[in-house]
Amino acid sequence: MPASKDLDSSGPHRRERRYRRFDLQFPVCLRFLSSGTMHELEAMSRNVSIGGLLLRANDSLPPRTQVSLTMDLQDPQFRGPVRLMGEGEVVRVERLEFDAGFAIAIECQHPITDVENHLPAIG
């Protein structure tokens, strides 16, 4: 089943979700190999589930790019600082309107299980 099922929040890709999403806007650092060199891309999360996440970034990544990600969460509503780390694959990239960058959907290879232990769901 494609990850976009878990990550889309609106528009023509909207489908029933397999996992609860969490409305999180936190910095995310993506690391990936390109032409044999390790690169980093800074992004901002839009929403996160245990199966993946949707990001906004100024730059794009090709679909099927393998990434490692780190997201540090700090907010008084959490039980304490949370660092989410994972690996995944870019499954969709869309240009956002008005030169606002790109929406990047990532499907995680393993569930991000810490999400449900610390955060309130959005639906």
Coarse morphology: globular
The spatial strand order of the largest sheet comes to: 1-2-3-6-5-4
Computed CA radius of gyration, to the nearest angstrom:
14 Å
Extended strand count: 6
Give me the strand/helix succession: HEEEEEEH
CATH superfamily: predicted glycosyltransferase like domains
Q: Determine the mean pLDDT.
A: 80
Output the CATH class name: Mainly Beta
CATH architecture field: Beta Barrel
At CATH level 3, the topology is Thrombin, subunit H
What characterizes the major β-sheet?
Answer: 6 strands, antiparallel, barrel
Helicity level, as a percent range?
A: under 10%
The proportion of residues in beta strands is: over 45%
Number of helices: 2
How would you concisely characterize the structure shown here?
This protein is mainly β. The chain has helices spanning 4-7, 114-118, and strands spanning 27-34, 37-49, 52-57, 66-73, 82-95, 102-108.
